[in-house]
Structures are given as structure tokens and as C-alpha cells.
Amino acid sequence: MARIGAFEELVLLAVSGLAGEGYGVTIQAELERETDETISLGAVYATLDRLERKGLLRSRVGPATAERGGRRKRLYRITPDGAAAVREMQRIRARLGRPTLHPARA
Amino acid sequence: MTTATATLVRWLVDPARQEELLGDLEELAGRGPGRLWLDVVSVCVRQSRLVAAVRSPSRLAAVVAVLAAVAMSSTAPALRTVRAVDPAGEFTLEFDGARVVHATLDGAPVPPHRLVQQPGRLVIRGGGDAGNDLDIQLASDGSFYWSARSPRPTTRP
What we know:
heterodimer, A: 106 residues, alpha+beta, two-stranded antiparallel sheet, 2 strands, B: 157 residues, 2 domains, four-stranded antiparallel β-sheet, 5 helices
């Protein structure tokens, strides 16, 4: 199974939450809203490309809209492998996170 | 989105990705120029057609050499010497950008202490008529103006 980084996991979760209708702008907006950080569009697209090459995302060209000057969107959808990679990361995190419930005292 | 940002994306970004990226940037244009430029630059860097072009070491070396040459040429001093003539004779001004760094009067270098530079103005001490100062107005477009000096009296042997 393909291992993913923390930012890749966030992008996969954002794409998954947008249910196949996510594209650059909406994925960036979702990530910024949930992380409360500024995330560049270039970083979003670089990660989307990498995840698509790994087979964890699939993209298709969507319809043109007026607010985009008549240009089409590239819409992203998570693949079964992508969903499995996220679940695996969550399992690992859950196992590793358990001891932190009892932090060491200074 | 401005014409400049669109042109930059068309130059730098992989043509296969331009439609979706230009559309995204068009949607993001309302967030203010600072934020838009952050996204434009990030897209141009991360989705650049140069990235695909420099995958081989030899191509990468070529690109680095070109970029180094461009960087060096941009930092090299751009000296420009202008020759001027009036009835009293000839003088030259050597510019580094908008600043005069050297001057000659009748072919002889003018000592630096006689060059007094002010914004938009250069004075050559003792360079005018009868030992007066030569006052030269410097324009922002690189041109300059001065009151023509009178012909020098000819000396008889």
C-alpha cells in the first residue's frame, strides 16, 4: 500500500469530503478553513498530481463556468486505494497516539 | 486576474494544465493582489514546464548555466558613456544607471571632488564659462541638458 505524508492525507480527506466535485480552488479553501493556515494553490496542485500518479486520486475535466472566464475545471475524486491509504494512516495514528494520553511530567 | 498574471502562467505553466489553472486563478482574483500573486507564483513554480524539461542532468546543467548568466548580467554594472559638445568644446559623462560616476572635459578626466551630484542635477566645479560651474540637469529618461558654454577665446602665441 502506498504510504502518504501528512499533507497528502489532508488533501485526500478534503477531496473525499467534496464528493467528486472538488477542484483546485475548493480543495484549497477546504484545507485553509480546516487548518487555519495559508496554503498556496501551487502546493495543492503539486500534491494532487503526486496523489494521482500514485493512483490514490482520479481526475476528470468538468464543465466550464462563467466565473472562470469560460474555462473548465479539473475535478478530483478519491480512489479505493486512496481511501485505504487514509484509513491506514488513521490506524497508525490511533495506535501511536494512545501513549500520548499520559504525557510525561516536566 | 490581470493580463500580467495570465501571461506569466501562459509562459511558464505546462500547456496541458493552463486551462484549469487560469480558471482557478480567475476565481481567486477577488482575494486581493497579494494573495493572488502568491498563488500565481506558486503555480508557476510547481507546475512549470521547466520542471519537466530539466529532468536529465545535462538539461539541468544547461538551464542552470542560462539562469546563472541571466543573474550575472542583471547584477553587472550597466555603464553608459555619453559624449556632449558645445561651442566651448567636448565633455563626456559616464553613467552607472542614473548616477554619473566619471566625467571628462576636453578629454581630461575630471577629479571626483569636482563632481557634485544632487537628485536630477550634476555640477562640474569650474567646468563652465570663465571658471564658473557647469550645471547639468539630469532627466529621469537618461537624457541631460545644460546651458551651452561660450567659445573659448583663442590664445595668440
